[in-house]
Amino acid sequence: MSLPKDISLDAILDSIADGVFTVDLDWNITFFNAAATKITGIRAEDALGHKCWEVFRSSICDGQCALKHCLKHNKNITNKSIFIIRSDGQKIPISISAAPLHNKKGEIIGGVETFRDLTAIHIFRQQVEEKYTFEDIVGKSQALAKIFRVLPQVARSNSTVLITGESGTGKELFARAIHNLSTRKNGPMITVNCGALPENLLESELFGYKAGAFTDAKKDKPGRLVLAHDGTIFLDEIGDLPLPLQVKLLRFLQEKTIEPLGGTESIKVDARVIAATNKDLEQMVESGAFRQDLYYRLNIVQLRLPPLRERPEDLPLLINHFIRRFNVIQDKDIQGVSEDVLAILMRYKFPGNIRELENILEYAFILCPGGFIQVEHLPEHLQDQSKRAENAPRTLEEIKCQAVLDALARNNGRKMATCRELKISKDTLRRMLARCQKIAQK
Questions:
Q1: Residue 233's beta-bridge partner residues?
Q2: Which of 6, 53, 292, 367 could cross-link with 377 by S-S, CB 3.0 to 4.6 Å?
Q3: Which residues of the chain, if any, have pLDDT below 50?
């Protein structure tokens, strides 16, 4: 099909909202449409004839050029997220697609690249993250919303709290939120990992000792419970607490007194106890590994933290949260993750939960020089898993699930926007996400 005589191809390309430019085999820009000028701040007459890297100064001009890859392998690239530097020095996040240009003989004569300004999307993502951040806990899923609703009331009480959940779900973060929202927030918060110390050391750490209690006890040492007076003591990995110490902890919970090693007098201590575990304490009670009376004392209020695979809508928010934090810590300017990376992470089951996501992004920060984290910056097991997932046969249910997760990622976790894109009801989306959780658990 040929164009009408009174309409030129340049006029059509100038009318579209995406930036478009072409290069020859020497990387000289041969076409630059009106949208490209609007996005970059560079006039077409100032871009034509110049090398593309001189005009764009993008985050992939240092060896990861998309056009170069296209021309070398004679294949297209779509929706790669990068950033460019405008003529005024401002960094602009964009999504690019690139393809080789062929003549009538099929020979490559150059390349074409289209790009879209993602600034508005990034600003919106930051606003969404701020809206759904509660005491440094990031999330908007229904599972977290239930916890957020009761957390202030739980914090205001002095009751013991038992936080349960898989390893890496952020139990200490919730314990700190309870402390910060409580009337004890001006007091200390003392953390003890019950699984990190042998029994004899753990006892002296918790309850303290008197001078002469054992060979090296030269002077009195207050225990962590005493140090937590008027504040909160967080007992992490409570399921690893030895049975003899369970008896002493039970006495403290009942009487609010402790007796240091080698001591003869009880000490009154006012400290709130928050305990956490990734173990099934009810099963441990049945097997005799955990005292039933202590379990009931600890389990006055229980908060179950959902694993990351049960809250996929929170993943984009968490990714943005960690990227902003690592930018400060490592003094970098990473803009985000590419769409390919986000798709990989949305498919991943995260056996290590939020802690694993944090470690993955920290690893990617080491390899990514700037711009957007790409697939090649991810740990090898994620790259390999992505390749296997692409080649492996999938059921219709798995394909539907992936389509839902991809749409959820594109809409930054917003359920109503996802429903509109997929043309489904909110109830349908809720049922499909529940099925996705079941598939992820297989």
A1: 190, 273
A2: 367
A3: 1, 3
